[in-house]
User: Fold Nucleoside-diphosphate-sugar epimerase from Marisediminitalea aggregata.
Amino acid sequence: MKTILVTGALGFTGRHFIRRAMDNGYNCIGLVRDSGFDLCPYIEADLTDLYQLTHRLSSIDFQYVVHLGAVTFVQHDNISELYKTNLVGTLNLLQALLECNSKPQKVLLSSSGIVYGTPESMPIDESCPTAPVNDYGISKEAMEKAVGLRMKDLPIQIVRPFNYTGRGQASHFLVPKIVEAFKQKAPELSLGNLDVARDFSDVRDVCSAYLRLLESGEASSTVNICSGNACSISDIINMLSRISGHSLQVNVDPRFVRKNEIKQLFGSNQKLISQVGNVFKYTMEDTLRWMYEA
Assistant:
């Protein structure tokens, strides 16, 4: 039975991925900064501490690595922490992997579709130039470029997930915020532009894609993880109204409206499907119902 080392195991995606991997017959070892993790065996280590990380990894055996440890909130206000975790933390992990006893068969590194910025041509495929428009996107682009220098040393594949959601995602993210308003039968909700449409996936499908990519022979490449469809905020509200039987007043708050915002962004998942087949099982309404009924 093969073992996957999962960084960011305490996070939203990490927990879902570990459950999915164990359901598919894998052992998992979580890498966390604090004790008390309950899903699988774990080690405590800080990605930004290279000495500690190398020491802890040298004592365990694993065949695969899924690197999900990162600052994931775009509006994160500690810029130093964002770059240190997303860039330096990733490079520390790769350096530690080169020095430890286990030589992984595959290392999956999570970047983000945000590295593309706001191109006007859709769908966005992997040949689209990167042009991030915020520090989060720049931290991921810098990580990708630095990792590219190290692909000759390790079997690395970079994934660029677009927006995705599901049970357990923090309430400061948009979709959980809307779902919670319907669950609480709130009379009104303040949002930004309602006609903005983005490419949303279900976290369960994203985790399935990660597992299949681990098992594939692909390496030294970058692949989008996206549904290939755009769903607007208005669509989400209408779906939740049907699911809940509740209607609420939506107010457009100017504080949440971004200037020159691209109305519609969605990616191409053709490269992913060509490598591992179609992993997309859930519609957006399936996902919203799953979240609402939690």
Observations:
- The chain is about 35% helix and 20% strand.
- The longest strand covers residues 27-32.
